[in-house]
Specification:
The complex is a heterodimer of chains A (about 325) and B (about 230).
Chain A: H1 3-14, H2 17-40, H3 42-68, H4 76-93, H5 97-117, H6 124-146, E1 151-152, E2 155-156, E3 159-160, H7 164-187, H8 189-199, H9 201-206, H10 211-237, E4 239-240, H11 247-260, H12 264-284, H13 287-304, H14 308-317
Antiparallel strand pairs in A: 1-4, 2-3
Helix pairs in contact in A: 2-3, 2-7, 3-7, 3-8, 3-10, 3-11, 3-12, 4-5, 4-6, 4-10, 5-10, 7-8, 7-10, 11-12, 12-13, 12-14
Chain B: E1 2-13, E2 16-27, E3 31-35, H1 42-49, E4 57-62, E5 65-66, H2 72-78, E6 80-83, H3 95-100, H4 106-115, H5 131-143, E7 149-153, H6 161-176, E8 181-185, H7 189-195, E9 198-203, E10 206-211, H8 213-218, H9 220-227
Parallel strand pairs in B: 3-8, 3-9, 6-7, 7-8
Antiparallel strand pairs in B: 1-2, 1-4, 4-5, 9-10
The chains are: A mainly alpha (about 325), B alpha/beta (about 230).
Chain lengths: ~325, ~230
């Protein structure tokens, strides 16, 4: 028996059919990104990297809302903090840009998560507004500190710090690892406890789940992935400015989850679809019509498939 | 052996006295009933025992340990299970997941579901259950923690006559088969009196009588509490 068959047999014992399909789906998506990149390159590479950043951003919001019932209307806060921290670390210490990405993600998770944690005792609507306010405070602070031009860091001593190919491969790798982690997190016993908290926090507390502690944990994890998305966004654009904290960024992540659906794969499909519309269509049609389409799709999904694309696919498969 | 004691519990909500110097003692493997009109303080007492509310005065001692400063999740882990007047469960989870989320293994969860006649619904989304089944699931979820004592808040409320009979059987068996100590808050006095060892009668935040069901039933005080001076 070949080593591959042995590995597949061992894998099938450990993983159920759903796990196997999900892993295959995530790997297939990574492969599809690579194939599209090799075939098209150019602007397609930019769209794909943009999708990677927004997938991470959207799943971070979905993690918070769909797994623990917490609402953030200011998810741009950890997204932007991650981006700014990675850029500042690079400009000040001139570390490897990929290392700066992780430092930015951890820093964004630490600062964004800690601020977010201060809101977990609020009811979701108030929590959402509080986080929106926090994100706007950072918008003005970074405008004040770094001006309208922000930080550009692509070139150091006349040399481009890294190639687009390297950034793209790096993005695909962190995307696959992140999605695999999030999938197994969602289907784990811990994930079930988070879903219970969303279902009924009082009943969850009554069965021994320390709700506040779990909400704190999920806030840091969510902030980490938002910040990771932000750092990657900054890495491929080589630039960050105050506008990264804009309200529209926060609402992008929400729209992607709403359009895609509550599960990881739903959010993923929402992020891919909406980011494709935002980035690809303006090449062929006016930007205003793109945003009009964006709005029409969101309204149609909300009206006819409140569970998002995910529920639409499930309905079609039945 | 005394499993749970509430000593001199007092609780105010603003100007309203919800509980005033309430003391009860529940022996191991017994069934203790709490009765009284609406607003007497029965559910408040349960909420204090399982940590959802902190009393202004008094102590709750469970198996010799003071639990008043502990969080509800810690109290649950110590062995106090709880069901609610309006059934609380996890509507986004399947029926069996509502039990396995407590950490109980799947086979044990299936046994508990079979005990409550919910085994056929194990893989259904729990929000699709009937009201009576939801009440059963609420108690089943509390049982899956394998608690020493279970606090059941109005388990018969909202049930039709036939389901009430089933629920009565479940509760009797919780005590006899599963050897659980029970504290039951209830308005259906006949049903409650048939399964309890002791009953505490509450009115205006105080325990006004405590004793065996037949003694409480015969006493004048129960008539006064429920119907006023006759």
């Amino acid at each position: 028996m070949s080593a591959f068959k042995k590995l597949a047999k061992a894998g099938s014992k450990l993983l159920n059919k759903n796990d196997q399909y999900s892993i295959a789906g995530i790997l297939a998506m990574g492969l599809a990104f690579l194939v599209i990149y090799f075939l098209l390159r150019g602007y397609a590479a930019y769209i794909l990297m943009s999708m990677i950043a927004y997938i991470l951003f959207a799943v971070s919001w979905g993690l918070l809302y769909n797994l623990s019932g917490q609402l953030s209307l200011g998810q741009a806060m950890p997204f932007g903090l991650g981006g700014f921290i990675s850029a500042i670390v690079f400009v000040v210490f001139h570390l490897n840009p990929f290392l700066c990405t992780f430092i930015g993600a951890l820093g964004g998770a630490g600062v964004g998560g800690s601020i977010g944690v201060s809101t977990i005792r609020l009811k979701p609507a108030y929590q959402g507004i509080a986080l929106l306010v926090f994100s706007q405070i950072f918008y003005w602070l970074f405008l004040f500190w770094y001006g309208e031009e922000g930080i550009s860091f692509g070139i150091y001593h006349g040399i481009i710090i890294t190639s687009i190919s390297q950034i793209f491969y790096f993005g695909v790798i962190i995307l696959i690892i992140s999605l695999l982690f999030l999938y197994f997190f969602e289907v784990s016993k811990l994930g079930l406890k988070f879903k219970a908290i969303k279902g009924d926090p009082v009943a969850a507390e009554a069965i021994g789940i320390p709700v506040i502690k779990y909400k704190i944990i999920i806030f840091y994890i969510s902030s980490f992935f938002a910040a990771l998305g932000g750092t990657f966004y900054v890495l491929y654009t080589f630039h960050v400015d105050f506008s990264i904290f804009s309200v529209s960024y926060s609402f992008f992540s929400i729209a992607m989850c709403v359009v895609g659906g509550p599960s990881l794969f739903g959010t993923l499909s929402g992020a891919v679809l909406l980011e494709f519309l935002t980035q690809a269509l303006p090449v062929y049609i006016p930007l205003a019509i793109t945003y009009l389409l964006y709005g029409i799709i969101t309204i149609l999904i909300l009206r006819f498939a409140p569970g998002g694309i995910e529920s639409l696919i499930k309905r079609l498969l039945k | 052996m005394v499993m749970l004691q509430a000593n001199g519990i007092s609780k105010r909500f603003g100007g309203i006295v919800a509980l005033s110097n309430v003391s009860i003692e529940v022996r191991e493997n017994s069934v203790f009933g709490l009765i009284g009109p609406n607003g007497a303080g029965k559910t408040t007492l349960l909420n204090i025992i399982n940590g959802f509310l902190k009393p202004d005065k008094g102590d709750v001692i469970f198996k010799g340990v003071k639990i008043i400063s502990k969080r509800p999740s810690e109290i649950a882990k110590m062995g106090i299970g709880r069901s609610f007047q309006i059934p609380r469960f996890f509507p986004n989870l399947s029926v069996i997941e509502n039990l396995t989320v407590t950490g109980v293994d799947e086979n044990k969860a299936k046994d508990i579901l079979a005990f409550f006649n919910l085994d056929k619904n194990a893989n259904e989304i729990s929000k699709s259950l009937s009201y009576g089944q939801k009440k059963s699931l609420d108690i089943a979820r509390a049982l899956s923690l394998n608690p020493s004592i279970m606090l059941l808040d109005e388990p018969f409320a909202g049930l039709d006559f036939s389901f009430m009979k089933k629920m009565l059987t479940y509760i009797e068996n919780l005590n006899k088969e599963y050897k659980k100590t029970l504290i039951i808050v209830e308005h259906h006095l006949e049903e409650l009196m048939s399964i309890t060892d002791n009953i505490g009668l509450m009115n205006f935040g105080q325990i006004v009588a405590i004793g065996r069901p037949e003694e409480i039933k015969k006493s004048e005080i129960i008539k006064n509490v429920y119907f006023g001076e006759i």
